[in-house]
Amino acid sequence: MAKSIITALRDELQYPIKMGFLENTLIKRELDGNLAFTADVANDNAYRGAVADCYIALIMSPNISEGDISFSQTEKREMLKIANSIYLSIGEEPADIADKPIVYIEN
């Protein structure tokens, strides 16, 4: 049985991320997550962009700690480097989130 695109994306990240987010990301990138994951898909700009989008989402999460997994600032910087490398290789602008403070406002 062939692996689906959405399963491949989840496996590629190696970090827990919500299935709904993966589905939304694939829709935004105009990919059908139920189709078979192939070498052509793996090398496609849309799929590679989806991988980068997911790394950015992990970095931007207010608290990345689930199932005893948490990320240090060094690990977040490495994820940002990976994501930006992908964006640049597919002709997209890199994410500009390095060292920017996040402000939380309570109602």
Layout of secondary structure:
Blueprint: H1 5-13, H2 19-28, H3 39-42, H4 45-60, E1 65-66, E2 69-70, H5 73-89
Antiparallel strand pairs: 1-2
Structure summarized in a few sentences:
The chain has 5 helices and 2 strands.
Percentage beta strand = under 5%
Shape: globular
Order of helices and strands: HHHHEEH
Count of β-strands: 2
Distance between the first and last residues' Cα: 50 Å
The gyration radius over C-alpha positions equals: 14 Å
Strand line-up of the largest beta sheet: 1-2
* Fraction of residues in helix: 40-55%
Q: Helical region count? A: 5
Low-confidence parts: none
Could you say how many structural domains there are in total?
1
The structure class reads mainly alpha
Main sheet specs = 2 strands, antiparallel
Mean pLDDT equals: 84
Protein described:
This protein has 107 residues and is mostly helical. It has one domain (5-89). The chain has helices at residues 5-13, 19-28, 39-42, 45-60, 73-89, and strands spanning 65-66, 69-70. It has a two-stranded antiparallel sheet with strand order 1-2. Helix 1 crosses helix 4, helix 2 (19-28) crosses helix 4 and helix 4 runs antiparallel to helix 5. The chain is globular, with a radius of gyration of 14 Å. The chain starts with a helix and ends in an 18-residue tail after the last helix.
List the keywords.
single chain; 107 residues; mainly alpha; two-stranded antiparallel ribbon; 2 strands; 52% helix; globular
